[in-house]
Amino acid sequence: MAKRVRIEPIAQIADIATNGALLSGLMGEELSILKECGGRGMCATCHVYIQDGMSSLSPMGKREKRTLEVITTCKPNSRLACQAKVMGEGIVVELPVGMYVQSIQDIEALIGRRCEKPLLSPITGQTLVEVGQLITRSVVRQLENTNFSVGEQLANTKKADVFE
Ligand code: FES
């Protein structure tokens, strides 16, 4: 049987199959969730806050815990929507503000504009460009050393997994 999940701040209701990943409901709402790592719990792009009903979600696994540790916007009620499974009723999800970017080119394409939503790193969830900030070449240059490569991150984490 499906469970009802409320999504804030857009005030949408999603029906998600019991034991289904929270992410499936969010995708159904056609939100721009990147799921950069393909739902493997290794990036920050499906990070959400649970406003209510944390106990109605599956417990957090090691991989999710480790990924959340590197997200700078992580709070005690953070979860990764691809890892958290819906087990019961009463879940209210809050989507973080901002847009995840896949590469430096995504930011380069916006040169000359003011940022309308914070641009976020797919790996750390960190704000790379604030709302209202003018995106210039020097902003892009400053971000050139930022690691956008979720693939690389996955490769490093896989090595660490071996020793668990
Ligand atoms: S899609 Fe990457 S952690 Fe969920």
From TrEMBL:
<dbReference type="GO" id="GO:0046872">
    <property type="term" value="F:metal ion binding"/>
</dbReference>
<dbReference type="Pfam" id="PF00111">
    <property type="entry name" value="Fer2"/>
</dbReference>
<protein>
    <submittedName>
        <fullName>2Fe-2S iron-sulfur cluster-binding protein</fullName>
    </submittedName>
</protein>
<keyword id="KW-0001">2Fe-2S</keyword>
<keyword id="KW-0479">Metal-binding</keyword>
<dbReference type="InterPro" id="IPR012675">
    <property type="entry name" value="Beta-grasp_dom_sf"/>
</dbReference>
<dbReference type="GO" id="GO:0051537">
    <property type="term" value="F:2 iron, 2 sulfur cluster binding"/>
</dbReference>
<dbReference type="InterPro" id="IPR036010">
    <property type="entry name" value="2Fe-2S_ferredoxin-like_sf"/>
</dbReference>
<dbReference type="GO" id="GO:0009055">
    <property type="term" value="F:electron transfer activity"/>
</dbReference>
<feature type="domain" description="2Fe-2S ferredoxin-type">
    <location>
        <begin position="3"/>
        <end position="99"/>
    </location>
</feature>
<dbReference type="InterPro" id="IPR001055">
    <property type="entry name" value="Adrenodoxin-like"/>
</dbReference>
<dbReference type="InterPro" id="IPR001041">
    <property type="entry name" value="2Fe-2S_ferredoxin-type"/>
</dbReference>
<keyword id="KW-0411">Iron-sulfur</keyword>
<keyword id="KW-0408">Iron</keyword>
<comment type="similarity">
    <text>Belongs to the adrenodoxin/putidaredoxin family.</text>
</comment>
<dbReference type="GO" id="GO:0140647">
    <property type="term" value="P:P450-containing electron transport chain"/>
</dbReference>
